[in-house]
Design goal:
The complex is a heterotrimer of chains A (274), B (302) and C (364).
Chain A lengths: L1 H31 L16 H8 L1 H34 L5 H9 L6 H15 L5 H25 L3 H9 L4 H30 L2 H6 L7 H10 L4 H42 L1
Chain B lengths: L1 H10 L7 H8 L10 H24 L6 H8 L1 H34 L2 H15 L3 H12 L4 H8 L13 H25 L4 H8 L4 H12 L1 H16 L3 H6 L7 H10 L4 H25 L2 H6 L3
Chain C lengths: L2 H7 L6 E10 L2 E11 L4 E6 L5 H9 L6 E6 L2 E2 L11 E3 L11 H11 L4 H14 L15 H13 L5 E5 L7 H18 L2 E6 L2 H7 L2 E6 L2 E6 L1 H6 L4 H6 L4 E8 L2 E4 L4 E3 L11 E4 L5 E4 L9 E12 L3 E8 L4 E7 L12 E6 L5 E3 L1
Parallel strand pairs in C: 3-8, 3-9, 6-7, 7-8
Antiparallel strand pairs in C: 1-2, 1-4, 4-5, 9-10, 11-12, 11-14, 12-13, 14-20, 15-19, 16-17, 16-19, 17-18
Helix pairs in contact in C: 3-4, 3-5, 4-5
The chains are: A mainly alpha (274), B mainly alpha (302), C alpha+beta (364).
The structure holds adenosine-5'-triphosphate and magnesium ion.
Chain lengths: 274, 302, 364
């Protein structure tokens, strides 16, 4: 009896926590459809007014483009550097292993405010603030540990004998990497790329330091839109941003399902053959 | 017979290596190992070097010396910010733990389907920007916000309850951000606990609640410790959430750093604050990594 | 296999000369200056207990492990410094190592593509190789979609499709069940006859080694303790280890004095076979040469004999195994054909075990 009571309380608590986790994510969508400039809830009447405003104001488009450019570039650089480092971590031998690993993982631990201030001070003299290059350099630091972690996990499960077999069959080390190893760790590489992309796309703290009239990423523009008073257009941007992320997850789920379906068909044909 | 043979083979030792060859062996780097160099050089140049530039700035801007550090403790405003930072981080950590522990525990009890749902719930905010979530909390919690107007319409309250720009607002916002980082390590540890131990304890005459407290809770402590550390260290450095949901009285160190740079251009002072935060972070991490494998928890985060 | 295919794959096997190959890991000596001449076209098996260094030696041949010393010559050319992909030796791995993201046909085509063979010829040769291992209709399956035995055959096809002059195999049958293993043993043996290249085969299974090999190199602690045909290994083991590792044996410990073997344990003297060695520490009699008679019954007086008590008597259909213990505590085993087994042999019975001196072997 006591146990049932405890369970019920537990489930109730979990439900409240679940709501607490989810509600802030979902509430922006209906609010962005409100026609009132005070973003009332529930919206008195629905309108796409704030979405229209996004289209009308070219600075939103500019910052979205800047963000996209930075996120794509830094995800690309992260994938290359992170995959190479993962290969070294899993396969290689190098001195000061613990210290090196600590440096590679440090961006996960150092508060972004500190990173922002440090690179701002350093970049100011180099003229790298408010430049795509500056943003890409910093966001690569923040995204690259995720690539490294994902790819390392993937690499550990790759059977070394496959690479040995490839070399025995006449492929050199580089050819073996691209034909055997890379295809096998591709899912991990892609997951790492996605992590790095989203990290950059959402990143606001270091971006606040690096942004200015010449270049402002979208999160920074959203930030200035809500810092002082609430700009309803931010609700529209947030909803769009959510849409992108949710559809990414749905897409990944769909890919997984399709693969499962193919696998199942394959096993059916196998049984026919035997 | 092959066992004995193996030890005999092991006894045939080559001559002990010289000191120089030992050093050479230690410094050896192979073809795979060399692949760490591009990222290492990149991070040293783009990440580590700026941190040192910042450190140097804290001692040289505007003049050489400790004055930026003494300035922090000379004025009660700044000392208050430091105190508030630690207080807020501690409260956030405590609340997060209180929520994360039962949530993770329920995850271990749930059916696979519900477990996935609970996991997704934890991960969705993980992947939506802190900015969007903090903004949404403002919309929900402000005086004219969703919760207040719903409660007023339902007649539960007469006047709106002020949450935004108070400590509760900051805590509500930061706990929401911190929850995933606490739930995941706790769940990862709880999952490995053998449930038969609880049955065994009950079989030996302990009450279910006693078995839970004496067996399950102690076994889950490594995950809890990791969660406390991650949450607390992260909370020290938060900027966005306290800036949006807190008032002037709730200023934390992150906000102070940004203020000092953007409004009064006191680079050296901001650098000193940042250095203090950085050193605190590293000390806490270093201390904790003595007690458990932090690398594993960081690596396991994905 | 058809005649035309046979000529397709016919090539002469390359001889391999292994000289002074050593390998040490930190403190551990895994191979201790191994010398071995492998003849072109022969089926040579590296046999040894787990950890004896078989895989290490094979991996040194293939180029995956750098030896600490010594050289490898294939067909008179020193390949010690060549990377694996330039050695042109085929290899079948433990657990096959088929590329999971490629179909069976793509797996087999892989080495041909690396060699830049024209596309039409790749298709033809892949087809041939798959037909050879009877897997033509599985060409488009993925490795996970075929059985273990079929995977094994694909690995074989992939290893020979580029016509290497040497094929290395590391316990290729280890993961298969007994029936399948025996079938594939015969198939691999036949493949060896058909394509005529040098096979170097690693196993820790003595039966497998005896069935398949032209010659066996027996490894112990990183050294070759005996090299010879299966018959030589079985009939004339060089040492106690070889006698115990290959087949079952009864061994008396002692020394040779005045052209007789002195068994210290039983305080007995046994006759020696003609042409025996001057030195030795053991005398071995295989179970099939060991006869049994009930105690007291007069046996052939020329035979050496020793009294023992039967512990167990195992009926195996075509034969019977008798386990008996001497008064000094040594366990002896005799295998007798069932009809010849005399009455009065049962657990607890006192018996005489006896043998012809010509069937005994002196162990170094
Ligand atoms: N990379 C390595 N580092 C250290 N020791 C090793 C390494 N590879 C092999 N060894 C050791 O070398 C010895 C021989 O190993 P090897 O794999 O050659 O044995 P094997 O005869 O193939 O045994 P098995 O029948 O179990 O496959 C073993 O004691 C093993 O532990
Ligand atoms: Mg082996």
């Amino acid at each position: 009896m006591n146990r049932i009571l405890a369970r019920t309380a537990l489930i109730l608590l979990a439900a409240i926590i679940g709501l607490y986790l989810l509600l802030p994510v979902l509430v922006v969508v209906p609010m962005s459809l409100s026609s009132s400039s005070f973003l009332t809830f529930p919206p008195k009447e629905l309108s796409l007014r704030w979405y229209q405003q996004l289209l009308d104001d070219p600075s939103w488009g500019r910052s979205a483009f800047a963000s996209l450019k930075v996120a794509l570039l830094s995800a690309t650089v992260s994938v290359i550097l992170g995959t190479l480092a993962a290969l070294a971590l899993v396969r290689g031998r190098f001195p000061f292993r613990n210290a090196v690993t600590a440096v590679l993982l440090a961006p996960l631990i150092v508060p972004y405010v500190i990173v922002g201030l440090a690179v701002y001070i350093a970049f100011l003299n180099l003229g790298l603030t408010e430049t795509t290059l500056g943003f890409v350099l910093v966001h690569t630091c923040l995204g690259v540990p995720y690539v490294m972690i994902n790819v390392s996990t993937g690499l550990v499960s790759v059977d070394r004998r496959l690479e040995m077999a490839s070399m025995n069959l006449g492929a050199g080390p580089v050819s073996t990497f691209f034909r055997i190893t890379l295809p096998l760790i591709l899912p991990s590489v892609l997951a790492g790329a996605l992590f790095a992309f989203i990290t950059s796309w959402d990143e606001v703290v270091t971006a606040i330091f690096l942004s200015g009239p010449d270049m402002t990423t979208m999160p920074v523009k959203m930030w200035s839109g809500i810092r002082v008073q609430v700009d309803p257009a931010v609700a529209a941007v947030s909803s769009l941003s959510l849409l992108v992320i949710i559809s990414t997850f749905l897409l990944m789920g769909a890919v997984k399902m399709i693969r499962k379906m193919i696998d199942r068909r394959a096993s059916l044909t196998m049984n026919e053959g035997i | 017979m092959s066992v004995a043979a193996g030890t005999r083979a092991a006894l045939r030792q080559p001559a002990p290596p010289s000191f120089a060859s030992k050093i050479k062996n230690f410094l050896r780097i192979d073809g795979w190992g060399a692949l760490v160099l591009p990222l290492l050089v990149f991070l040293i140049l783009v990440f580590i070097l700026p941190l040192f530039v910042m450190l140097q700035k804290s001692f040289t801007d505007p003049t050489f010396g400790w004055q930026n550090y003494t300035a922090i403790f000379a004025q009660s405003v700044y000392v208050k910010v430091l105190g508030n930072t630690f207080l807020t981080a501690a409260i956030v950590t405590a609340v997060t733990l209180l929520l994360a522990f039962p949530y993770a525990y329920l995850m271990t009890l749930a059916t696979p389907k519900w477990r996935t749902v609970m996991l997704v719930l934890v991960l969705v905010p993980f992947w939506t920007s802190i900015l969007v979530r903090s903004f949404a909390l403002v919309l929900l919690l402000r005086d004219t916000g969703v919760l207040n107007s719903l409660a007023q319409d339902a007649g539960l309250i007469a006047e709106p309850v002020t949450i935004i720009r108070t400590m509760s607002g900051v805590v509500i916002g930061m706990v929401q951000v911190a929850l995933p980082f606490a739930v995941l390590p706790i769940y990862a540890t709880m999952r490995t606990i053998d449930r038969r131990l609880l049955q065994a304890a009950e079989g030996l005459g302990d009450r279910p609640s006693g078995a839970f407290l004496r067996i399950f809770v102690p076994l889950s402590l490594p995950g809890v410790a990791a969660a406390i550390l991650l949450t607390f260290v992260q909370a020290l450095g938060y900027y966005i959430t306290p800036a949006l949901l807190g008032g002037p009285k709730n200023t934390m160190i992150g906000e102070l750093i940004v203020q000092q740079v953007s409004t009064v251009l006191r680079f050296g002072f901001a650098a000193a604050l940042a250095t203090m935060l950085l050193v605190t972070t590293f000390l806490l991490i270093g201390l904790a990594s003595k007690y458990f494998d932090l690398q594993k928890h960081l690596m396991g985060q994905s | 296999m058809t005649k035309s295919q046979e000529t397709q794959y016919e090539s002469s096997g390359a001889p391999i000369r292994i000289s002074g190959i050593s390998k040490t890991y930190k403190e551990l000596t895994v191979l201790d200056s191994v010398d071995l001449d492998i003849r072109g076209g022969e089926f040579l098996t590296l046999l040894g207990a787990s950890g004896s260094g078989k895989s290490t030696l094979l991996n040194i041949l293939a180029g995956f492990v750098k030896p600490s010393g010594g050289t490898i010559e294939v067909d008179g050319v020193d390949v010690s410094r060549l990377p694996p992909h330039k050695r042109g030796l085929g290899m079948v791995f433990q657990h096959y190592a088929l590329f999971p993201h490629m179909s069976v046909a793509e797996n087999v085509a892989y080495p041909l593509k690396r060699l830049g063979v024209p596309k039409a010829e790749i298709i033809r040769r892949v087809g041939e190789a798959l037909d050879m291992v009877d897997l033509g209709r599985m060409a488009n399956r993925k490795p996970t979609e075929i059985s273990g035995g079929q995977q094994q055959r694909v690995a074989l096809a992939r290893a020979i499709v580029f016509r290497p002059r040497v094929l290395l195999m590391d316990e290729p049958l280890g993961a298969l069940d007994k029936m399948l293993r025996e079938q594939l043993q015969l198939e691999i043996r036949k493949l060896h006859k058909d394509i005529g290249i040098t096979f170097v085969f690693v196993t820790h299974d003595q039966d497998e080694a005896l069935t398949m090999s032209d010659r066996i190199a027996l490894l112990k602690d990183g050294q070759i303790v005996q090299l010879g045909t299966p018959e030589e290994l079985y009939n004339a083991p060089s040492c106690r280890y070889a006698a115990e590792f290959v087949g079952v044996s009864n061994i008396f410990q002692g020394s040779i004095k005045n052209s007789a073997f002195i068994d210290g344990q039983h305080a007995r003297e046994f006759k020696l076979p003609l042409g025996h060695a001057k030195e030795g520490t053991g005398l071995m009699i295989r179970p099939e040469h060991m006869r049994v008679s009930p105690a007291g019954q007069i046996t052939n007086t020329i035979h050496d004999q020793i009294g023992a008590t039967v512990e167990d008597c195992i009926y195996l259909g075509s034969s019977r195994t008798v386990q008996a213990r001497t008064d000094a505590g040594a366990l002896l085993i005799a295998r007798t054909e069932v009809p010849r087994s005399p009455d009065g042999i049962h657990a607890g019975a006192q018996i005489q075990m006896h043998w012809e001196a010509a069937d005994a072997r002196v162990l170094a």
